[in-house]
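Structure first, sequence second, as always.
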């Protein structure tokens, strides 16, 4: 089995970071996650009241705000202030490079955080907030974790993936701040006017990633970033743009039916 994984996902780094070596930890985590959120979690909660997780969520959301905020600040510091990379062509540092360990630490921290993000869905299940456990939500979490592992294993750390991490952590600071407010102050949840801008920020994020991939592909012909990696990030950006745009349309743009129209609809069906 290890030989199969090595042929499908060859290991680029002889000293892989945590969770980027053997595929079994990531596959086990994702299997347990899917079994719980799709089946066992709902069975477990079937005859139970929703758990009051306000204190747990307060700690979790504040932790995520701090984690993503520090990560974002660190990437900005090294990319734009220290300028340790060529922004026109973000290649992974070779072994022995003076900044290689910094790159590895940041990349490991990002991959670990994507696994921690899976707890979002677990909390939804324990609170019986099933309407939030959508296809987009589950697809996004599973893909980000597995793609993070697969790309890290076959490509290495840092490099082109820094752009994705930079934008993603910026959006997650906004998202977890909203989660914090809505979980701690339920009375104002419906009055957080900037909620829709989180989705717009996610759309902006994937549009920038797509645009950056196009730029590297067509305007940096001598860049050493594997073309396959660029195409993968561009393809996933297109998929996520479609999914988040569809969600935004249905959640914020499609006019809600008025009570009168709802009653007419019920009469027609009866």
């Amino acid at each position: 089995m290890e030989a199969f994984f090595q042929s499908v996902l060859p290991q680029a780094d002889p000293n892989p970071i945590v969770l980027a070596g053997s595929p079994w930890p990531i596959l086990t985590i994702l299997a347990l996650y899917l079994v719980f959120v799709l089946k066992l979690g709902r069975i477990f909660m079937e005859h139970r009241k929703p758990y009051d997780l306000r204190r747990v969520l307060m700690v979790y959301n504040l932790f995520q705000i701090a984690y993503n905020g520090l990560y974002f600040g660190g990437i900005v510091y090294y990319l734009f202030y220290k300028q340790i990379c060529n922004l026109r062509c973000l290649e992974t540092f070779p072994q022995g490079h003076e900044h290689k360990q910094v790159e590895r630490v940041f990349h490991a921290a990002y991959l670990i955080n994507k696994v921690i993000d899976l707890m979002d869905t677990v909390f939804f299940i324990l609170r019986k907030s099933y309407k939030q456990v959508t296809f987009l939500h589950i697809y996004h979490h599973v893909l980000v974790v597995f793609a993070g592992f697969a790309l890290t294993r076959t490509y290495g750390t840092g490099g082109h993936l820094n752009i994705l991490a930079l934008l993603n952590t910026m959006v997650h600071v906004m998202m977890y701040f909203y989660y914090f407010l809505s979980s701690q102050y339920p009375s104002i949840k419906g009055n957080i006017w900037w909620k829709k801008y989180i989705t717009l920020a996610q759309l902006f994020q994937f549009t920038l990633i797509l645009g950056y991939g196009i730029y590297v592909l067509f305007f940096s012909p001598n860049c050493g970033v594997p073309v396959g990696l660029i195409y993968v990030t561009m393809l996933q950006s297109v998929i996520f743009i479609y999914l988040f745009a569809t969600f935004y349309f249905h959640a914020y743009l499609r006019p809600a039916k008025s009570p009168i129209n709802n009653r007419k609809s019920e009469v027609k069906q009866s």
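Margin note: Residues 2-252 form one domain.
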